[in-house]
Amino acid sequence: MSAHLLRRLLLLVYLQTAASTPDCEELELSPLITGPDGVKDDQLSASSIYSSAYVAKESRFTSEIAWCKNNSDPDPWLQVTFEDSQTIFAIQTLGNGARFEFVKNYTISYSLDGSKWNWFTSGNGTIHTEIFRKPSYSLQFSGNVAPSIPVRNDFETPIVARFVKLHPLGYYEYRSVRWELYKCLNLDCEGPELSPLITGPGGVNDDQLSASSIYCSSYVAKESRFNVFYYSCETASGSVRGHAMTTINDVTNNDDATNNDGAMNNDDVSQL
Ligand SMILES: *[C@@H]1O[C@H](CO)[C@@H](O)[C@H](O)[C@H]1NC(C)=O
Ligand SMILES: *[C@@H]1O[C@H](CO)[C@@H](O)[C@H](O)[C@H]1NC(C)=O
Ligand SMILES: *[C@@H]1O[C@H](CO)[C@@H](O)[C@H](O)[C@H]1NC(C)=O
């Protein structure tokens, strides 16, 4: 294989890595509780029930009533137990199907093994309110404003869990709630389309690359291009090679475009 062909191949592999960022503009969601891929009644449980009518299986979206906690329960929760761990992208809630009762806000906890539980927390920059729940902060989700109008919350970071609990907080009349959790079917949908600024069709000329100094005449600034096969410069401080990129489609989330570690990682390229 000629060096030229090898370089082209490396560039191609690199560009494909850059383009495969899983960033769904529009998630294709599929229900995990009620529907063809849903759970059985005995996979729904709760900390307590208000009466024999308001059992956990009535928390399905198709129920004519809802699940509701017992009046004497100080720490109520509604739980779903999946057969295998799921990657959950969103939650949607409804109130009571027969009465004007609904949950105004709630938190979520989840577990992989059923014994170690995590509160769903936010990273920085979230629009949700964080409330303190020992031993950490958890995210307070917006619930319903009327029993029959569904309200959906998308998780900024999908939950990977086999067990998920909804903990009702604020409510109107009674903590009656129906819920649905969603997985995503189009995980591999196209992310931001990235195009290189330094090397490639729209790239710069060699004389547009400069440096403060060179180790020796082989290691000049133009050798900082991504498609240069031999690039390692063993100085005491090591060599640095970067690659700036521009986005050519309409990207709303700049972080994904500038912080694409997978594409920028030199190790990935040198191992090809
Ligand atoms: C609800 O709590 C009360 C008081 O603790 C208890 O007497 C009642 O049996 C409970 N109801 C149900 C349906 O669990
Ligand atoms: C948000 O950022 C601040 C300041 O950097 C930090 O103190 C805080 O712990 C961060 N909160 C979360 C939830 O990461
Ligand atoms: C959420 O619920 C808590 C606890 O009932 C309540 O104090 C708070 O005001 C509620 N927040 C909103 C935004 O409704």
What do these coordinates show?
- This protein is mainly beta and 272 residues long.
- It is 11% helix and 31% strand.
- It has four helices and 14 strands.
- It binds 2-acetamido-2-deoxy-beta-D-glucopyranose (3 copies).
- One 2-acetamido-2-deoxy-beta-D-glucopyranose is lined by residues 104-105, 169-170.
- InterPro entries: FA58C, Galactose-bd-like_sf.
- Keywords: Signal.
- This is F5/8 type C domain-containing protein.
Fraction of helical residues: 10-25%
Number of domains: 2
The count of β-strands is 14
The coarse overall form would be elongated
Structural class based on helices, strands and sheet pairing: mainly beta
CATH fold group of the largest domain: Jelly Rolls
CATH architecture level-2 label of the largest domain: Sandwich
* Number of helices, counting only DSSP H or I runs of 4 residues or more: 4
Unreliable residue runs: 1-22, 123-130, 229-272
CATH level-four homologous superfamily name of the largest domain: Galactose-binding domain-like
| Largest beta-sheet details | 10 strands, antiparallel
What is the beta-strand fraction? 25-35%
**Rg to the nearest angstrom?**
26 Å
Q: What are the bound molecules? A: 2-acetamido-2-deoxy-beta-D-glucopyranose
Head-to-tail CA distance between termini: 14 Å
